[in-house]
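Support reply, case 0932

Customer input (verbatim):
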Amino acid sequence: MNAAQIVFDPLLPWGVIFGLGALALAGVVLALWRGLKGWWLRALAALVVIAALTQPSWQKEERAPLSDIVLMLVDETASQRLAERAGVTSAAADDLEATLRARPNTEVRRVPVPDGDGDAGSQLMTALSAAMAEEPRGRIAGVVLLSDGRLHDLERAPDLPAPLHLLLTGQEDDWDRRLIVRNAPAFAILGEPVELTLRIEDDGAAPGETTTDIQISVDGADPESYRVPINEDLVLPIELPHGGLNVIEFVVPEADGELTDRNNRALVQINGVRDRLRVLLVSGEPHAGGRTWRNLLKSDSSVDLVHFTILRPPEKQDGVPVTELSLIAFPTRELFLEKIEDFDLIIFDRYKRRGILPAIYLDNVRNYVEQGGAVLVAAGKDFASADSIYRSPLADIIPAEPTARVIERGYRPAVTEMGERHPVTAGLEGAETWGRWLRQVEVEPTSGDVVMQGVDDKPLLILDRVGEGRVALLASDQAWLWNRGFEGGGPQLELLRRLAHWMMKEPELEEEALWAEPTGQTMRIIRRSLSGDVGNVTVIGPVGEPVEVPLEEVSPGRFEGTFEGPEIGLYRLTESDLETVVGLGPSAPREFIQTIASGEALTPLIDETRGGVLRLEDGVPSVRNVRPGRPAAGRGWIGITPREAFETLDVRQTALLPPWLVLLLAAALIVGAWLREGRAGAAA
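Our regenerated output:
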């Protein structure tokens, strides 16, 4: 294949050449106006000189034709595996590839497009951009997509030099029912209903049903079924049963004939938090540590604190008339009989029996704990006396008995071996630099867990569960020394914060707990236990096959393991008598949000290139050549644009006006003009 053409390589810029041409033209016009007989010879001479400045050459190329390239992208994502789409797509791709390869001067680049990483969905345009980057743009004669048209990267569509066609999979009578979560908060307040907005939609050639069932399950419990409308927003009020992570599963039963049930399920994970924590602090008498408790509880904006300090016990007689006292009477009946259930935690700080709280009130406090309440006793030296609060109905719930001995000497609190495993005291740093406390009440534990020790390794902090509630005994009133920085201080705020939150049953401080932290399709399983060893965790996935996951102790009382979930959905974890659920991935991956085959998303891009959308259920289309800019698709056919690309093997150039020829022609014309005009002048 050869080609020839005239090319120019000007010696001067084109602007200068055009300027010289204008001057030469002006000279010729002037000669013509003056009636010079040799004006035309002057014009030819100027033309030869100006043409020489453009340096024209005869260029001859030896070319090798290059084939046209057709890009054929085959969608192999998850939505293409529904029904018979995969088989139809593969067979159509084979037939079309064979048809294209049979055409002269045509190559085919078949590009499979698998699922994107994670939940990226169909990345067709990303794959097309990558394929185009591998090929010369001038050779691409057409692009064919075999897909259901559901892609998730349309914004990455490249500028196409040739027609784009979509061969659509699926059937015109396909239909699908899907569950959509329109609104689901990440957090909700315990005891208050939270509104979730759901919608059940029918897409495609749906049968026209107006209602369907929906099943709702919380934390893997037995589901409850309800009849709800289709194609309407559903506002569901749900009250969370507990703090921490709550996993709510919604399931719409699969209907006869629908394309898939993968989008009939939704997992909503909501963290339950308390709105306000109500704490009753009863100080037996003013002391330096009273402000420590108050500052700790008031620093938390979610805590409502009711604080009473007993400044005037009943036995005090100083002759001052009651009407002249500004002190508030202790509302014992209201607090300990009528409103005791309103409090999440009751703290007795250096409290001793003075007749202010009758035995019936303290008996009610004991019942309050057994029914789920919490009591913290911060013991002063009065705890070892005959007026000790232990000498009351509270003895049944307090986890240690005082020996009547109060130790008045310095010691450094320490975490016990049990305390290193307990979430209240585990991980408290800098124990070797903690400051000393100066007083401890000697007690003998009767129940519970000793998590801190003091003088001669005697129990200092004891935690216990009583019925449905919790009790803590701190056998010293010296924690405030850490807050004041005495001898370096210590983690007083962190310790008391954890202690208060453990007593109020915050999930992250449960000593026996099992939970999982999902990341994509991987979950990190965490088991916390006070025992030295735990068993394997049994994981049951959406398909119901149990898998044993071994755990490894990563720190005292904390065991961890990882599990890769093969499926997206709800997983149930059990170990011993503990059980929890966790959701991996979205309940409906992007590939299954919309499953009805449609070319709507690609239509603007296809129209721009004059391509077409054809259904494979009508058969594999034939292929035709079309000129650039012409419609490239019709009934039963698609078109490609031949690019007529070539490779240049050799280039030869021959000067059309060599210097010697220019000099000869210019001189001859100028001399001819001079002679003609000279003769004309002599004749005149």
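We compared this against your earlier run and they match. Two observations from our side: The mean pLDDT is 86. Residues 659-683 form the longest helix (25 residues). Please reopen the case if you see a mismatch on your end.
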